């Protein structure tokens, strides 16, 4: 038997609760002989993932691992889902297996209501390549500018929206005193409609 905690929305924080939520499995030995060690595996659909916790692995032993006739064991997992404005139902599968018996799998459904929240989508504008100028022994254009624009496809306005640049090794900002974090202007990114343009950051120059 597989069960799952019911997930709801905290009206104060606009977040799922509980989060992580628990998926639990109870496996019973209905046969007349004891089992070998029983292993359980959780199979999560896209959109759900295991919480990063000690011992929270996809495959593990039942507790207790060996079951006498008519005995049962249990195992649980902590699972997370990011905030989403979409109402969605997920199917989670748990399989139990042991060497001296057939494997068995059970499904359980968990529903997530949509959350009123901003959802930011960004677009980066920059040169896609540099060329080497032999006469000047340098790349061109260098330094090169780039900007990021954003729109809010969520259900609430986004306040204090900003963008942070993370450069790969061997790239630096030019001039070097440019802040790595820039706020959009205006900082309040309203819910997007077809008539609303994207909001653009001031942009950076790098080399």
Identify the CATH architecture of the largest domain.
Sandwich
What is the count of helical runs?
A: 0
Shape verdict: elongated
Cα-atom radius of gyration: 26 Å
Average pLDDT number: 88
Into which percentage range does the β-strand content fall? 35-45%
For the termini, the CA-CA separation is 59 Å
Q: At the fourth CATH level, what is the homologous superfamily of the largest domain?
A: Immunoglobulins
Class of secondary structure makeup: mainly beta
Q: Which strands sit side by side, in order, in the main sheet?
A: 1-4-8-6
Helix-strand topology string: EEEEEEEEEEEEEEEEEE
Q: Identify the CATH class of the largest domain.
A: Mainly Beta
The description of the largest β-sheet is: 4 strands, antiparallel
Q: Would you count the extended β strands for me? A: 18
CATH fold-level name of the largest domain? Immunoglobulin-like
Could you characterize the architecture of this molecule?
By secondary structure, this protein is mainly β. The chain has 2 domains: 111 residues, Immunoglobulins (Immunoglobulin-like, Sandwich), CATH 2.60.40.10; 87 residues, no CATH class. The chain is 0% helix and 44% strand. It has no helices and 18 strands. The strands form 6 sheets. Strands 1-4-8-6 form a 4-stranded antiparallel β-sheet, with no helix packed on it. A hairpin with a 4-residue loop joins strand 2 and strand 3. The chain is elongated, with a radius of gyration of 26 Å. The N and C termini lie far apart (59 Å). The mean pLDDT is 88.
